[in-house]
Amino acid sequence: MSDRDGVIKLVHKALEQEPRVNIHRHPVRIGYSADAVVLEGEVESVAAKKLALEHAAAVEGVRGVVDRLRVAPAERRGDGAIRDSVCAFLQREPEFLQCAIRAVASGRVETLRDVPADGAGDIEVAVADGVITLEGRVSSHSHRRVAGVLAWWAPGCRDVVNSLAVEPPEEDTDDEVVDALRLVLEMDPLVQAEQISASCRNYVVTLEGLVRTGEESRQAERDAWCLFAVDRVVNRIEVRK
Q: Is the pTM here over 0.85, yes or no?
């Protein structure tokens, strides 16, 4: 067995042992290119995608991981409909009222809302095969994360490439993660944000609180997983009996 075949076998074993990835229900193709493992396929959730990448990267002998994983959407929608949903979310949320919003369609950029050059940001939305790309600038890491979650919320979304820059540059911290999560939970109509507390250490989020249903707990966890750079979510939320 070559070193390449051995690494692929170890990665397969690592993914097989992670129940959230569930490669039997959602097969993941494992390849090897230029000393990096390549993961391809459609997984069940953002959590499954991030955990698959984490476990693959942790395998001995893996020098890099190429992410070609997509998340299976609850409903299939065309790129135009997905783009319209993302832009509508961004235009509606007060956090982005001072941001210009632009949409890329058929290679052309359409300005949906313009602001002065010294505004709080400029966000450009493009969608290709269900993959949403965000480019431009925002004023904080919290805004960058919230924009990314709004993109994940768009029906039909299969992945989010968050290339927004933070200007002026600032240090990213665990506190920025918590700030973004609080905003997201307050925006989410499926959860009662005041019933949930969140903390973060080294980009691992811990959720606690008491909610009405198991689905509300799962939704809060999904929101946390959607945050840019969050590596793991520990859900300690209890369901009211």
A: yes
User: 13-33 pLDDT, tens per residue?
Assistant: 999 999 999 999 999 999 998
Could you give the domains of the chain?
A: 3-71 (3.30.1340), 79-166 (3.30.70), 174-239 (3.30.1340)
Query: Could you tell me how far CA 129 lies from the centroid of its own chain?
Result: 16
- 42-53 average pLDDT score: 98
Cα separation, 157 vs 79, whole angstroms: 9
pLDDT tens figures, 183-218: 999 999 999 999 999 999 999 999 999 999 999 999
Q: Do residues 133 and 105 lie in contact, with contact meaning Cβ atoms separated by under 8 Å?
A: no
For the chain, the DSSP string reads --HHHHHHHHHHHHHHT-TTT-TTTS-EEEEEETTEEEEEEEES-HHHHHHHHHHHHHSTT---EEEEEEEPPSS---HHHHHHHHHHHHHHSGGGTTEEEEEEETTEEEEEE---TTSSEEEEEEEETTEEEEEEEESSHHHHHHHHHHHHHSTT--EEEEEEEESS-----HHHHHHHHHHHHHH-TTS-GGGEEEEEETTEEEEEEEES-HHHHHHHHHHHHTSTT--EEEEEEEEP-
pLDDT at 53 over 70: yes
Q: Which residue has 């409909």 as its token pair?
A: 81
